[in-house]
Each structure stands twice: as C-alpha cells, then as structure tokens.
Amino acid sequence: MSKKTSEAIKPQSDPDTYIYNPNIAAEELGLPLDLILEFVGDFIAKAEEFKDELYRSIEEDDFESASILSDKLLGVAKNLMIEDAVASMKTVKESKDKIVLVTHTDQFYEVIEKLKNIKLISVDEEILLQEERLKTLEDSYAIDPLKWADDYTKTMDELVTLYDKQGRLDKAIAIHEKSLAIHKKSLALYEVLYKKDPEKCTMDYISSLRKTAIAYRRVNCFNEANALDEQRLAILQELYQIDPKKWESEYLKHLTSLAISFKRQNRLDEAIALQEKKNVIYEEFYKTDSKWMMPYTMELSTLSDLFKRQERFDEAIAPQEKKIVIYEECAIADQDYVRTQSDLADLYTKVNRQNEAIALYEKVLPVLEELYEADPKKLVYTYSIVLNALADAYYNQKSFNKAIPLQEKSLRIHEELYKTDPEHWTVVYARVQNLLGVFYVEQERFDEAIPLYEKSLAFIEELYKKDSENWVLRYSMALNNLGYSYKCVNCLDEAITLQEKSLNILEELYKTEPEKCAEYYLKALTDLGKMHYDQKHFDETMLLEEKRLEVLEYLYKIDPQEKYSYIDVLQGLATTKAKNTNYTEAVQLFSKYFEIIDFHQKDEIIWFIYPFVKWYQCEQRLGNSIAIDDLDELALKLIALYKEKLAEKYQEEIVKLHDGYMTLRDSEDAFDREKYEIFVKIFLN
C-alpha cells in the first residue's frame, strides 16, 4: 500500500498512540488474543534487550551481527504481523549502508515505543476503517490490478475476519468469493508473464499461486487449493535443487504451510512426507552450524506429533530420541529437554517398552525435581505428570512399594495447588486421589483407600451435577471404586447402595448410547451381581445376569469374534434357570448357545457335553419328544466330529468325564441323578 493511501484511511488519534490490531495475528496463528498481547510484551522486552548491541554493531560496521539480531526480531514481528517493524528489520537485515541501518533502526524503535501504548479498537470501529480502506483500494485496483491486487484482497480478508466475529456470514461469503475471483485473475496474468520470462517473474507467480490457494480454501474448494499448492511445491523444489542457498527459505516456508494444510485436512501421510523433507534440510543446517539446533529440534517434535496423531508410536519414537541426542551434544538440560524425555518415556509405554520407559522416567525425575524446586509454579504441571507416569509404570509392574510414595508425593503437591486455586485444580486433584486409592486397594490397604475414594467421589459428584454428559462415566467409576472397597471391609449394605446408584446411571445412558457405555454397564452388572450372590440374594442375581446377557448379546452382534463371554453367560444363566425349574427359558438359552458356538474350533469336548446334558434334561422334563429326537441326532453328529478331532484320545476324555459324573449317580437329588443317566445313555451306550 502506498503512503498516500495509508494516510488517507488512518484514524485521527493521539500521536503517541499506536494503532495495531492483534486480532489479525490471533486469527492467523489460531491463538487467544490475551496470548498475542503477551507475545507483544515479550517482543518489546526482546527489542529493548537487543537495542544497545544492535546500535553498537552498526557503529562498529559489524554488519553480520546486526543482520543476525535483526533477523531474530524480524521473525517475531512477522508472526505478530507488526508490519512497520517488519519493514524496518527487513532493511536492517539486508543492508550494509550505515546511514540506512541507523535510519531504519531508529524507525523500528519508534514503533517499539508506540507499541507500549497500543490502542485496542472495537470490532465495529475496525469494520468502519476496513470498509473505508476497501473503497479507496477498489479505485486503485481498477487502474492497476497487478499493483494493487495484494493490498485489495488483504483488506478483504481482514474485513471477512471481522464480519465472521459479528456473525455476518452473508457479507463474509460474498467478499470471499470476490477475493477469489481477483486472485484467479491475477494468477492468470502472472502465469502468462512467468511463461514469457520465468527468471524475472518466478517470485510473483509462486506468490500468486499461494494466495489463490488460500482464497480457494476460504470458500471450501480444497481440491483446487491443493492442486495449486502442489504446483507451487514442484516449482520451488526444482529451484531449490538448482540453487539451495537462494531458495531454501521459500521452499521450507511452503513445505511448512502445505504440511499444515494437509494436517488440517487429516491427510496425515502427505503431511508426514513433507515434514520428513523439511527435517532432512534442517538436519543439514544443524550439521553445519549449531545455531540451527532449536529450529531442528522443533521440526523433530512436529514429525513425532504427526506420527502420534496416526497412533504410529514406534515411528514417533525416533525423532524424539534424535532430539534428546542433540540436546545432550549441546549440553542442554533445560525444561524442554526434560519434557522431551518425559514424552519419549510415554511413547515407550505406548509400545510396551516398559523397562525403557521406567529407566527414562527415573533419569529425568531428579533433574525435574531440581528444576521444580527452583521454579515450582512453572514446572508443577510437568513434574506432576512425570510423578504420575512413573508411579503408573511401577503399578503396571506390580512394584507397589515404589509406585505409592510417588503417588503420595503427587497428592501432596495437588492438595496445595487445590487450596490456592480450587476451580482450576479440582479435576486433577480428584484424579490423583482416585489413583492413589487404586494403588492402596492393590495392597489391600482399604482403610487408607476409602477416605481417598470418598473425597474423590465428592468432587466428581459435584462435577457430574454441573456437566453430567462429560462426567457420567467417571462418576460411575468413582461409585464403583468406593463400593468395591466397602465390600472388601464387609460394609456390604453401603457397597450395594453405591453399586446400585452407579448401575442406575449407566442403565439410563445405555438406553440412549449403548456403544459409549456398554463395557462400563457390563462391569457394573457383574460387580453388583457378585455382591448380591454373596448376600444370597439369588432373585436379584438372576435379574442382573439376564441384563448382563442382553449387553453381551449386543456386543456379540457388533463383533461376533468377541463371543466367548456371551457363550459363558448363556450357559451359566441357562444352568441357573434349569435349577430353578424354568425349563422353557433354559431350553431357549441352550438352543442359542449351540447355534452360536462353532465346535470345529473347540478342541475341548466339555464345550459340547456339559451344556448338552443339561439341555437334554430340560427337554426331557418338558416332555418334548420331538426335540429329544433332534438332540439325539445332534449328539451323533458332534460325537463323530470329536472322534475325528481327538482320535484315540476321545475315549480317554469320555472316561474322565464319566468319573466326574459318577459323583452324581448316588446323589439324593433326582435332578443330579438324571444328569448321570443322560450322560451314560448318550456317551457310553
């Protein structure tokens, strides 16, 4: 934009007040406004820190140092979109003319002084400014499209962002479409110029490709955008191979933007391929100059994170291991080094390399403790994560004596944090209490587990009341944990009350979202069923088993491979029904059992004989002669199958089973004697 145009639309204000819109940077970077303002403050502080050294470098004709310092400030200014600062530092970075350097450094520090008094204007005020600017630029664009296209479309983009904030979507869409049309027109013009004179017009053409791709994305035309991005990448890759030094910056920038675009579209394989190309380049930079250590390690983290998003944890490990080697080569033992070790240990855990995970956690913990003691506020989150992770790793190895002291330390830390800021720390505090309770239960230290479970439950219950949808499963688990502990200290009435409460909650959820909570509901049914059985509440136990069977049938229909729990419950419930003389219901369950099970896959003959004898007995009691004839035929088929499968061992198995049934032959219970008689009739005669 020309100086004249800029001044024509600039608002009248106090000359000491600087108009800067951090909302644009917030939108571009996807960060909260508060954080952008914090970054601006950090940028001002960094500029002040560099000030004396920058002027001294210029005074002493040390242009290399001036270029390095200005480059650092330039990168931040670009990210924060402080355009006046970008222009000044770009000139300082590239110039070797002392007068030019001093002039632009002075201008830069004038901007810094003005930034200290940023005036934040309202969205309504900003819209009026941008609309006025758009009218001015529209006339300029009509006269010279190529010269004014960038400023014109950039103002459109800023106006769209503001309209979005006010929910004025029709206006935003219309401007997006107009912006796309302009970009397409510019691209067509630049393409003609590029074909005529590639050397002169390359930068303009690839820049137009980028801007047009962005415009396509804004109207959700992702295929068109991707095609232009890939076209641009092909040009830059070829240029980079011809002259790496000249084109590396632009090539890397495009690799980054395209990788981010693929990531947002969930095209992670393509994002990873581009990131790997970037990492090769940054590795070479690092090998030639250690100043590239930080950028290279950041790129390694990005690659690892992409692998993690695909749950390719084995591949995510290598970049993190490389990052640690680099830190150790450079003798760096700061917070990021510690976090990287913690992240790597977590990856080792995910791929079942538990011993390596524990060794790494044990290595990092003393370093982290020292850093935590020096700055508790800053390191508390990482420190508590490592404490909990190492405790969990010890727990998984049944090393409870090592796990518990770490979890107790974590609890003390979170107790203090909760006291200082209850709203922020409630969730984590409740979780740590619950985890320590679990550890105590493993050592049967129920008297210590119960108070923790009670406190954790009280917190979680309040969270559940405020947000039942997100807390329902954790609330039910907290009820189950405390209920189980009460059961273990023979407080069965209290245990049953809690388990019933949990079951009722899960039952309601299961009706509407069976997939979400089937496993939790099944566990609650099983736990409560065992408690009622221990109390000899057989009617309640039967009812719960029937519900349990319904859930298992639902899971079986989703995944027939997971059928054996369903089969076990089918047989168990059928047996119980038969004992209670509910023969008709028992027959239905036994019939379903034999319908589902594939005896070709079951070498153990007991899968056939035990339930078959019971089924036969029920049909006999009901006087179903036709069904008995069908069972006689089924028995012959399955006996033939097992004789073929077991060969000479078949008779050995029958003899073993006969010895077991012999205990029923002389039973006082006629029902038991019948089982023996059926076994002899079918399998011995």
Automatic annotation (TrEMBL):
Has UniProt tagged this entry with the keyword Repeat? yes
Record keywords: Repeat included? yes
What are the start and end residues of each TPR repeat? 430-463
* Highest taxon of source: Bacteria
Classification via PROSITE patterns: TPR
Q: Please give the SMART domains that the UniProt record associates with this protein.
A: TPR
Q: Tell me the keywords, alphabetical order.
A: Repeat, TPR repeat
**PANTHER family from the entry?**
TETRATRICOPEPTIDE REPEAT PROTEIN (AFU_ORTHOLOGUE AFUA_6G03870) (PTHR45641)
* Record-given protein name: Protein containing Tetratricopeptide repeat (TPR) domain
Native organism is Sulfurimonas gotlandica (strain DSM 19862 / JCM 16533 / GD1)
